[in-house]
């Protein structure tokens, strides 16, 4: 939250991202990840747009080698494209008008 606040004070638009699971996650880390989701999602006044990548179905299974590299942590180009699509779907571009969302 402090980072978001400093960025906004510096004149930046702030995009918040949720995080995705990793093959290295253990139960305690999973609990912390869900707590972080709650924190991020409950603070919309502190950022300008939320990119909720944690809701992308294709990024839920870190053993899926179409979207995750074999280490189960790093993303493939296909996963990066899924995130880029989410960003493109979410952001309102200056001069283009409304977001693609209805």
Rounded mean pLDDT is 89
Strand content: 5-15%
Order of helices and strands: HEHEH
Computed over alpha carbons, the radius of gyration is: 15 Å
Query: Which regions have little confidence, pLDDT < 50, spanning 5+ residues?
Result: none
Number of strands: 2
| Gap between N and C termini | 28 Å
Shape: globular
Number of alpha- plus pi-helical segments: 3
Main β sheet profile: 2 strands, parallel
Spatial order of the strands forming the largest sheet: 1-2
Give a structural overview.
This protein is mainly alpha-helical. The protein has three helices and two strands; from the N terminus they run αβαβα. The protein has helices at 2-9, 27-41, 77-90, and strands at 15-17, 49-51. A two-stranded parallel ribbon has the order 1-2. The longest helix is centred in the middle third of the chain and has 15 residues, at 27-41. It is globular and about 40 Å long.
Tell me the layout of helices and strands:
Elements: H1 2-9, E1 15-17, H2 27-41, E2 49-51, H3 77-90
Parallel strand pairs: 1-2
């Amino acid at each position: 939250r402090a980072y978001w606040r400093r960025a906004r004070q510096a004149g930046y638009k702030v995009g918040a991202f949720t995080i995705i699971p990793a093959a290295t996650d253990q139960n305690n880390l999973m609990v912390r990840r869900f707590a972080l989701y709650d924190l991020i999602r409950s603070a919309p006044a502190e950022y300008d747009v939320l990119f909720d990548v944690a809701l992308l179905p294709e990024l839920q299974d870190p053993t899926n080698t179409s979207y995750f590299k074999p280490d189960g942590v790093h993303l493939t180009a296909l996963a990066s494209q899924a995130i880029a699509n989410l960003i493109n779907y979410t952001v309102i571009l200056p001069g283009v008008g409304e977001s693609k969302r209805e």
